UniProtKB/TrEMBL annotation:
Residues 238-354 form the CobE/GbiG C-terminal domain. It holds the Pfam family CbiG_C. Residues 140-225 form the Cobalamin biosynthesis central region domain. Signal peptide: none annotated. This is Cobalamin (Vitamin B12) biosynthesis CbiG protein. Residues 55-134 form the Cobalamin synthesis G N-terminal domain. It comes from Tolumonas auensis (strain DSM 9187 / NBRC 110442 / TA 4). One of its GO terms (biological process) is cobalamin biosynthetic process.
Length: 358
């Protein structure tokens, strides 16, 4: 899913008024501002051929595009570029007088609605947001997923169903499965998230009457059967430190990682990242594993691991091979700030230690 990053916002200025507005915005955000060669000033990048060509390039390299100009022109330029609501960047349009900021594309998952509100606040402008949940002062399932950095199975269809229920005045419950967190200190602070429109559910055995569906925020692999549709929203909180012999097979790593997650009843969608020692940066199976799981592959130096290896059992063979006596445990320790989960798996030259990040 795409979410707006402040350092990855491209602003397109089509008139002198657009340049003046962009300068105001640059005082608040680290923007990359584009304009024609005719209008170019210090701090602005000239279009690569044309506005349309530059916008097409930015569509794949930036998480948000802000056009200071006409909505119709913007629609015509981005129309051939649209692919998917879960990957398209946010697109926001501002009139050159800074009176209206319009969320045009990827309002929820892409973050255009949030960016629209922020830019409108900076400019003292009217935010124009047309998504049904926002118009009705409600949260949305995809908005909650972005805030939680969470995923779910059949995300697109689930969002469509749940959001339609919310705007149709149907009752949708929200249950925070705190017991699914492996760390007792890691309870979700539910008050931090936008849950407008959802009905709080405190127990799966005592549901409020007339619920049409239930959202479960949980890391748990399986949930109990209920009489209403249940949509599981899985925050990415689990990290895996992995050590392995050279040329270990991908299938073995995948099988053992799945085994370790299942041992602690953790949904595979809860995986946030895998990590290892920097000497493993070219280990094909580890790189393939991170790609397969769609998570980052994080690397730590031997010196970083040495600072924490005294906390864990060491192997003389591992120390002679890479310079530190343990890999998976200190890696998981660093990735989770010391919040490890259960015991380390040790099989067939592979070690896997899980942690939970906050």
């Amino acid at each position: 899913m795409n979410t707006v990053k402040p350092e990855s916002i491209a602003v397109f200025c089509l008139t002198p008024g657009g340049l003046r507005l962009a300068k105001r915005l640059k005082q608040h955000l680290p923007l990359t501002c584009y304009c024609s060669e005719k209008l170019q000033e210090d701090g602005f990048v000239a279009f690569s051929g044309s506005f349309a060509a530059t916008a097409a390039q930015a569509f794949t390299t930036h998480t948000a595009l802000v056009v200071i100009g006409a909505t119709g022109l913007t629609v015509r330029v981005i129309a051939p570029l649209l692919k998917d609501k879960l990957s398209d960047p946010a697109v926001v349009v501002i009139d050159e007088h800074g009176q209206h900021v319009i969320s045009l594309l990827s309002g929820h998952v892409g973050g255009a609605n949030e960016l629209t509100r922020y830019l409108a606040g900076v400019l003292g402008a009217d935010p124009v947001i047309t998504t049904a949940t926002d118009v009705n002062q409600l949260s949305a399932l995809d908005t909650l997923a972005v805030q939680l950095d969470a995923d779910m199975y059949d995300f697109r269809q689930s969002v469509k169903i749940v959001n339609q229920m919310l705007v149709s005045d149907q009752k949708v419950g929200l249950f925070w499965d705190h017991d699914s967190l492996p760390d007792t200190e890691g309870r979700w602070q539910s008050e931090r998230y936008d849950t407008r429109g959802f009905i709080t559910v405190n127990s799966l055995t005592d549901l409020p009457p007339d619920l049409s569906a239930l959202i479960c925020v949980s890391l748990r692999e399986t949930l109990p059967e209920l009489a209403i549709p249940v949509f599981k929203l899985v925050p990415r909180r689990i990290v895996a430190g992995i050590g392995c012999r050279r040329a270990t097979s991908f299938q073995l790593l995948l099988s053992l990682l799945q085994q370790q997650l299942a041992k602690y009843q953790l949904d595979p969608l809860a995986l946030r990242a895998i990590g290892s020692v920097v000497i493993k940066e070219d280990e094909a199976a580890l790189k393939h594993l991170s790609a397969c799981c769609r998570v980052p592959f994080e690397l730590y130096s031997v010196n970083e691991l040495r600072q924490h290896e005294h906390l864990f059992p060491s192997s003389d063979f591992v120390r002679q091979t890479i310079g530190v006596g343990s890999v998976s445990q200190p890696v998981a320790w660093l990735m989770s700030d010391g919040h490890l989960v259960g015991d380390t798996l040790r099989q067939q030259g592979v070690t896997i230690t899980l942690g939970v990040s906050h």
